[in-house]
Specification:
Layout lengths: L2 E6 L13 H11 L4 H4 L2 E3 L19 H20 L3 E6 L4 H12 L5 E6 L20 H5 L14 H11 L13 E4 L6 H10 L2 E3 L1 H7 L1 H11 L5 E7 L22 H12 L4 E7 L11 H14 L3
Parallel strand pairs: 1-2, 1-3, 3-8, 4-5, 4-7, 5-6, 7-8
Length: 313
């Protein structure tokens, strides 16, 4: 299948500005390498709501939720259209809240199919407006996709309007959960709150830590993961660049976490899953060149992964 790039330059779901520039930073990385990658693949630009950061925020439990919801719907529609046009969509996003739109778009295109999710990320992104300590929606996409409010760990009292917006987000693209915890697998998870840990424990969600992958070997761990997702018809890979080691690579992301993956490990993980021919969509998120302490290193590394895995599709 031919690749189509879906460029979603939105960062309104994050707590730190700048990831809206991540796609352009990757394109600059390609130009500096004399690589015509971005000229070889058709693309679709998604309209953004980035101007909403100038609006007064009236909701501390789900910041700018009405605009994030609309942005995710735009991504959902773009992904669905990409599938219907016969493409393999690679979503290039700013902040990770967009993943709800991507997952919703996959499910909207294939409502009868079972979706597995590979989440390569330092963070669990399992909060809801009821549990989030920050109110940043880039920490909520998986909870929305799986219809998890986690009221047993409730610390917030969102207003009715916020709850209504949240419930609409949960139904985006498909009425009901778009994936189930059994079909979610984490790689590189190492920075999350107790409320998220409780969900992981409650549903026995599989987490492959950095230490486990290096001790047991990537091939062994991924064989286990593939076996766990054997009933899934489609697999979606979501790659947050903060899954990589900020000290070894770059701090060019909103929430950097030490002791993470190398780019080579990320490429090997993706390559193994792509080889199953079940992967139907990949997303890159959270590249923030404004925070990069090594020039444009994070975008250069992300582009290296993008160029490599595109060649395997």
């Amino acid at each position: 299948m031919a690749i189509q790039l879906i460029k979603n330059r939105s960062d309104i779901g994050a707590g730190t500005r700048g990831s809206d520039m991540g796609i352009d930073a990757m394109e600059i990385a390609a130009i500096n390498q004399s690589n015509d990658y971005f000229n070889r693949h058709p693309f679709l630009d998604v309209i953004t709501h980035n101007e909403s950061i100038y609006h007064k925020n009236t909701n501390n439990f789900a910041k700018r939720i009405e605009h994030v919801k609309e942005q995710c719907q735009r991504v959902c529609d773009a992904v669905k259209k990409s599938f219907h046009d016969g493409f393999f969509p690679i979503v290039l996003s700013g902040d990770h809240s967009s993943a709800l739109g991507t997952i919703s778009g996959i499910k909207a295109a294939f409502p009868e199919k079972i979706l597995g999710v590979i989440w390569i990320d330092a963070h669990a992104d399992l909060h809801s407006p009821f549990t989030s300590p920050s109110g940043n929606i880039h920490g909520m996409p998986l909870a929305a996709a799986m219809h998890i409010d986690n009221l047993s760990d409730k610390i917030n009292e969102p207003e009715i309007n916020t709850q209504n917006q949240w419930n609409q987000m949960k139904e985006m693209g498909f009425i009901g959960p778009k994936c189930i915890p059994e079909h979610l697998i984490y790689f590189g998870l190492r920075d999350y709150e107790n409320a998220e840990q409780n969900i992981i424990d409650q549903f026995s969600i599989k987490v492959f830590t950095i230490e486990e992958l290096r001790f047991r070997g990537i091939s062994v761990c991924i064989a286990d993961a593939i076996n766990k997702l054997h009933n899934c018809d489609h697999i979606y890979i979501s790659f947050d660049v903060d899954s990589m080691d900020c000290d070894r690579i770059s701090y060019g992301t909103g929430t950097p976490v030490p002791v993470g993956f190398t780019s080579e490990e990320v490429m090997r993980i993706m390559e193994h899953f792509v080889a199953t021919r079940k992967v139907s969509c990949i997303e890159f998120a959270e590249i923030n060149p404004l925070l990069d302490n090594k020039g444009n290193k994070m975008a250069e590394t992300a582009f290296q992964v993008l160029d490599f895995i595109s060649g395997k599709i």
